[in-house]
Amino acid sequence: METLHFLPPLRQQPALPSSTCHQNITNQHNKRKELLNNFAQQTGAWHHCMFFLSHTRNEYVMMFSLTVFENLVNKMWIGVASQDKMEIRSCLPKLLLAQHKSVPYFIRNKLCKVIVDIGRQDWPMFYHDFFTNTLQLIQTPTLAPLGLVMLKTTSEELACPREDLSVARKDELRKLLLEQVPTVLGLLTGILETYWDKHSVIASTPPPSPTSRESVELLGSLFQGSQYSKLLCQPMAVLDSESHQLCCLVLECLAHLFSWIPLSTSITPTLLASIFHFARLGCDLRSKAKTGPLNSSSSNGQLNPGTVDRARLGVLAMTCVNELVSKNCVPMDFEEYLLRMFQQTFFLLQRLTRENNAHTVKSRLQDLDESYLEKFTDFLRLFVSVHLRRIESSPQFPIVELLALLFKYTFNQPTHEGYFACLDIWSVFLDFLTNKIKSRLPDRESVLNRYKDALVLLLREVLNRIQFRYNQAQLEELDDETLDDDQQTEWQRYLRQSLEVVAKVMELLPSHAFSTLFPVLQENLDVYLGLRQFVVTTSRRLNITAENDCRRLHCSLRDLSSLLQAVGRLAEHFIGEVFAARFSDALAVVERLVEVTCYGSQTSLYDLETAVPSVLKPDLIDFCVSYSHWLAQFYSETLSHNQSQFINLITSAVDACSPLITTKVPEKLLLSSCHLMVSITSTVRPVFLVTLPAVQNIFNLITTENHRSRLPQEAHILVCRALSNMLLLPWPNLPETEQQWQTRSNSHTSLLSALTREYRILRATADISPRQPVLDNVKAVIQQTLPVLRDLVDGISSESTKSRQICYQSLQESVQVSLNLFPVFIQQSDVTDEMLAFFLTLFQALRVQMGVAFTAQIIHTFLSMFTREQLAASILEEGSAGCRVVQKFLKILQVVVQEPGQAFKPFLPSILSLCMEQVYPVVAERSSPDVKSEMFELLYQILHQNWRYFFKTSVLTSVQRGAAEDTMENEAQFTAAMQAFGQSFLQPDLNIFKQNLSYLESLNSKHKLYSRKLFRTSMLFHFINVLLQVLLHKSHDLLQEEITLAIYNMASVDFDAFYSVFMPEFLNNCHGVDTNQRAVLARNFKLEQDLPSFTQSVQRLVNDLRYYRLCNSSLPTGTIKL
């Protein structure tokens, strides 16, 4: 029988036009699907399927029949008659034994899974020989592969079962399996040992070469004559195809077993030694498969005749090792085994990084299987991140020698990804070392000295790897155009990861890092400075034409760019307590770089027609930015001494970047120059800065009304911030009397007056002309001016009161203009968005300076303008400027309700009303995640900051425990807010759910929300019920811990009521379970009051309730006939 009788083959259908044919095929497919589903639901369908399996060779029919059995066992087994179960348990294993060699591997695996599923339900009570049968198969040579497939499937399905089992059954299965682990591991060890010994080639092994003898001697000293060095030097086994397949299956089983069994002495030294024998195969150059590709899993059993992929065995063996090493919890009696494992693995690392006459380390790694190298790198990462702390201090473990091996392994990686992975390992090691030194400061020098040679080598080699001078061929392979998901090119990623490692070494050895970097930087700077002689001034080009010279110049300047970034990372190691000790080094760097930056500006190298990378000049300026904190400390230290050196430095830096603040230079260079000005004015803050001619030129450029010379908006904003900073930020280490506030205030007013000239003219425009050109011009002025003002305010938000006072005085007229214009543009979302962004920044930074009366006027204007219709229209434009307008409006209200004191309390009813009656009804049934998030934060801030608005707690009441409950006010608004929070837990948005749950928990920790009478008596059980339902529906599984903790905190208000009232009521209302199941659920929920036990009970309740529902819903309600 090759097909089910009611399925006419498609190929017999007459030819039809393509569109009609497609429609007909779809209809036929749906009809067949419905017929098959109906057939599968029949009570006795399995009888037919058993017949199909015995009499057909059609793969589709067999797979369908097995799916019917799978569904029967996993969903309807509880309703199957005992006699039928016995028949199925008897027939399917017989079928497997009879057909496992003749059916495709995926049919065999599916049949194995169905038998294991039966064992999952019935073993050992009704299927007592389930596991015994598997062990017998493994012990029968001809059936061992089948037994191993069964064993692996059993481990997968029984050790980590899905939720379609009760917790009690899951625990029982795990206990049963753990009892079998010693037997299973013994069997698997025996197979590996037998096949290795059987196939080891002792006679044909050539005598060891001098190189390999050195290797063994080195390892002998490394591991103090460990027997493993001798053991692992034994000859390699050469397996035939059948033995190879069997060993692959054993290693796959072990890998899965190791993923869940605890570390114990059941994992014997003999087993570990056997695994490492096979791990050696991955190190063997002959092991790389030269024939066609293999299936990804050896359990497929579809090896090509005569093909033995020895590397596959190495990969599987390393997978086993990594499963063991990934476990952080190591019992005391297993620590010795762990040390042996590391000794054996580092023996393999020695083999991988061994050089001989025939192969360099790099060519050797290149010839090895990629997957094997990945697994080995994974091992090294796990070792360093999980176990280094417990092994490092062991006298038996030579950590320095290991680092030497890791060094060779890292810098001979054949791929960029492999190199990145190794750099990550070094980063983890450097973090470990840094933390160790911080925790043992008295031993700092001795710890550092132990590792100094390794760190010096690492720093030098990583620096060499980022320079074209040493690594041109590899670096030119890197893509510097295509952006990845992190918005960086392959070259940028390479440079960033390398510099991260360099920076971590710098933290440990700053002086050595400087002495390594600075001479190399000097060499490249000399090349850059030497370009002047090749500049042809008449045609603005570089007179270097030979291709080889152009290439060398290009590489040298790319290296200079990279080295500048590296030296920039040194800046933090020149400040603070070590400023004086390392002053001369830092000064040498900064003076040299400022000199080169000035040279670049004077010669306008950015303007040449040349192959000089355009990134270079910005890198020079960015370097100066990175040393701004050092300059600030230099300024503080020289205030009472001769400042000429410092003044020269700052003057030169400003002179270098000032000519570049113009529309005539490339934007990247322009922005770097602007950022340097901002850094000098905000971090260094020299008194004399405003008097420099170069700074005066920038003032004139910005305040002159010339649209053609106006900088791009981003650059314009940065320059305005720099100029404002000079006038507003306090000068360091000077008393108030010497700050010249009055003069600076007048200058700032003049600056703002010039910047807002066009904007303030709009004040007279009460009615904007409806003509589009006029409207567009007005909008352009608003959208150019307000971002500048917003940035100026944001820049002084954390500064002194005096700075903020001066800022607000200069801004006062512009703020009033903005308030007048707001009603005019209420329908223009893009303009309103800009205005509200400005007002939000004002409220956050200058609300005290604005005063209560004016602030109240602004709030009143906003509340009156944002009608329900206006809000609804804005919110419905999801993801648009309209939504952003509402978000910013809600943010402003958040600032208002957080203000202490009584000034803004009169607005609370209006704000609450707007929130609950105007915004909430619009967003409740829509996604609108951004607006919802801000609305709920506003609600939370109202409740948190204004708790007494709802609960009038007197001091006497809080002191007298026996006093009456708190007096409740504005109960309706409080209840509405709580209902809004509760409603949000019924919706799918994970972020809103998490945010609101944290708000409730915060209100409880700060104000005892759950204990308040109103919440406790009328809301508490509703919230617990909703949270339990969420767990049951698995809709927010990522938040399981947070939800369970919230349930615990709510229940802990009154555990007696929770256990005696809520739980019985909750279980009685649970549909899909019968009375006996409810009783079991209630009995299993332990009456514990500690968090771990309560959490366990909740998890058990949720799991078992879902399991019972699944079982009950799958019981057949009747027979569907064809």
Automatic annotation (TrEMBL):
Q: Which Gene3D superfamilies match?
A: Leucine-rich Repeat Variant (1.25.10.10)
Query: One Pfam family this chain carries?
Result: IBN_N
Task: Establish whether keyword Plastid is in the entry.
Answer: no
Q: Which GO terms describe its cellular component?
A: cytoplasm; nucleus
Q: Which PANTHER family match?
A: EXPORTIN-6
Database matches in InterPro entries: ARM-like (IPR011989), ARM-type_fold (IPR016024), Exportin-1/Importin-b-like (IPR013598), Importin-beta_N (IPR001494), XPO6 (IPR040016)
Q: Does the keyword Cytoplasm apply?
A: yes
Q: Keywords assigned by UniProt?
A: Cytoplasm, Nucleus, Protein transport, Transport
Q: Which family does it belong to?
A: Belongs to the exportin family.
Q: Which GO terms describe its biological process?
A: protein export from nucleus
Which is one GO molecular function term here?
A: small GTPase binding
Which intervals hold domain Exportin-1/Importin-beta-like?
Answer: 104-278
Domain called Importin N-terminal: residue spans = 34-97
| Localization, UniProt | Cytoplasm; Nucleus
State the name under which the record lists this protein: Exportin 6
